[in-house]
Q: What sequence folds into this?
């Protein structure tokens, strides 16, 4: 009997041990599961964090490429600068890394303002993708490349033989603007000038056998856009004024926004003036629209009448000898609101030439208007150059227009166009 009890007791002890072992194994299994689950959760969090960071970085890369394209790509820049609802899109897959990609839309909301929407994607394994979307408001930094009111501006330069601005036997009226020079202003030998605003010189203002009316007694010309003397009661010649900056212009750099580059894209680039005159016969009246660049001097002669809706530019001088040039902004297309004559040397209206319109005249050296009995020159805009020379008996009326000057300089100037960026919204998905 005792043997049976001993055997039964041993069996019971073995059963208890197995139960204890099973309990311990269950506890260890539970601990291992909890540890593994925690470990996998941490790995998932780390993976998701990596995916979120990478996809966000890819979206940011898309924004940066969009800004780069606005600065340097001619098509993208034109839509941004010159349209109110233009759209540009691009994408890269893969982008920067094998599992990454981004897609970008630039949607204009106004002239020189847009919303950039950039979506970055990063594949996490075969079934999961981290996604970040950034929406950015972007606008060109507001700038005024010509912050002055000078209808005639003489920036100055080397040499003493000719002052910055000279009037010889010249009748000149300036409406709504000033006469500005970084050096001298000379009124000589029978000149008379009526100027609605200021007369400022970096050095001297000389009146020799002339009439320089700086009391603003200009008769009402009937133009409602230009205030008369009753509204602007007078000005006093100011000498020894601080120098003002001659705004720079991008004539012929490789930048897509330069005048030459735009003319090449439009098919309006001419290496020689003869090439251009071949499509512009003598004694003809022709209208041109867009941006035209002649890579040497250009003489408007033989009775040609040129009506330029846009930009005429030359690497040499532009001379109107026996012809007429009228420059105005186009009424449609990418260059609405801009018009100008640009020369890297002199702009000269000869004794038998005529000039008019609404535009900016920009000469890297000198603007010159000579005598002509048949024509009264009536022009809206402004003349910018190192010097200005007006001589003879031609009546010259200049109506200052800051808008046409600044719009044209903003398009072709060398001032930086770094956009102002504001991050408005972002989101992520997995």
A:
């Amino acid at each position: 009997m005792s043997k049976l009890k001993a055997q039964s007791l041993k069996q019971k002890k073995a059963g208890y041990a197995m139960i204890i072992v099973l309990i311990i194994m269950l506890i260890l299994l539970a601990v291992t599961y909890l540890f593994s689950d925690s470990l996998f959760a941490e790995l998932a969090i780390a993976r998701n964090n990596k995916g979120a960071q990478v996809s966000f970085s890819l979206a940011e890369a898309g924004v940066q490429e969009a800004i780069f394209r606005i600065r340097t790509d001619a098509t993208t820049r034109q839509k941004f600068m010159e349209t109110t609802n233009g759209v540009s899109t691009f994408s890269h897959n893969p982008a920067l890394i094998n599992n990454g990609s981004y897609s970008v839309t630039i949607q204009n909301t106004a002239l020189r303002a847009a919303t950039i929407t950039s979506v970055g994607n990063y594949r996490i394994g075969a079934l999961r993708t981290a996604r970040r979307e950034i929406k950015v408001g972007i606008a060109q930094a507001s700038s005024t490349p010509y912050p002055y009111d000078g209808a005639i501006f003489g920036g100055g330069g080397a040499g003493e033989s000719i002052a910055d601005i000279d009037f010889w036997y010249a009748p000149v009226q300036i409406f709504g603007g000033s006469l500005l020079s970084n050096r001298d202003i000379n009124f000589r030998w029978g000149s008379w000038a009526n100027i609605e605003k200021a007369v400022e010189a970096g050095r001297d203002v000389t009146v020799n056998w002339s009439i320089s009316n700086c009391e603003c007694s200009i008769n009402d010309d009937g133009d409602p856009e230009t205030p008369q003397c009753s509204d602007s009661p007078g000005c006093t010649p100011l000498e020894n004024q601080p120098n003002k900056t001659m705004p720079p212009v991008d004539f012929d750099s490789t930048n897509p926004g330069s005048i030459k580059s735009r003319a090449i894209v439009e098919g309006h680039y001419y290496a020689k003036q003869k090439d251009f005159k071949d499509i512009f016969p003598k004694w003809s009246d022709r209208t041109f629209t867009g941006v035209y660049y002649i890579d040497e001097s250009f003489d408007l002669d033989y009775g040609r009448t040129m009506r330029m809706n846009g930009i005429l530019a030359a690497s040499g001088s532009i001379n109107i000898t026996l012809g007429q040039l009228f420059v105005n902004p186009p009424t449609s297309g990418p260059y609405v609101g801009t018009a100008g004559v640009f020369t890297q040397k002199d702009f000269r209206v000869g004794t038998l030439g005529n000039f008019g319109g609404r535009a900016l005249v920009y000469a890297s050296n000198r603007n010159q208007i000579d005598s002509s009995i048949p024509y009264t020159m009536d022009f809206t805009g402004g003349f910018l150059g190192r010097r200005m020379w007006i001589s003879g008996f031609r009546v010259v009326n200049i109506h200052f227009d800051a808008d046409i000057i600044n719009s044209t300089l903003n398009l072709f100037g060398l001032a930086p166009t770094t956009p102002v960026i504001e991050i408005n919204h972002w989101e992520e998905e997995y």
